[in-house]
Amino acid sequence: MINVLFVCLGNICRSPIAEGVFRHLVEKAGLSHQIQCDSAGTSSYHIGSLPDRRMRQVALQNGVELTHKGRKLSGDDFYNFDYIVAMDEANFEDIRNQSYRSSGFYFPEDRLYLYREFDPERADALNVPDPYYEDIAVFDEVYQIVERCGASFLTFIIEKNQLQS
Ligand code: 4NP
After folding, report:
1. Confidence (pTM)
2. What distance in Å separates the CA atoms of residue 83 and residue 86, rounded to the nearest whole number?
3. What residues does each domain of the chain span?
4. Which CATH code is given to the segment(s) 2-161?
């Protein structure tokens, strides 16, 4: 089983939608028995909370139900997950630093990614925008971004691990 963890700041907007959409893509590809995913936040602001109401609404409009409960990234995650995917550069740095503090090693570079590296339409953007203080249009944009990234990240995981459905 390959385990993928999506990480943002609050674990109520970007990483839960990334998780929900990626799981949906994995199911459609018939790979649920080989790939699992989860999400977490670098902060403890929203532990135990459902995703933001606006994010759940946009997800539902696209046929994805989000039921994740917010949790904070933990030291165990660096052992339990094969791939960790950051939504923005601040999350990426926080993940790296936390991995070093908790284990004495940086999480390997070939297993830690910025999600927009996989966005075929990213131009030079590196971050999934933080929608929390924005209006609903940004939540829609986040959905579109994680859908594009999810499709190409899944292809990448399939090829890297030589998976077959
Ligand atoms: P997320 O968005 O990192 O995509 O879950 C945020 C959610 C909450 C906060 C910031 C960003 N906050 O400051 O509470």
Report:
1. 0.98
2. 10
3. 2-161
4. 3.40.50.2300
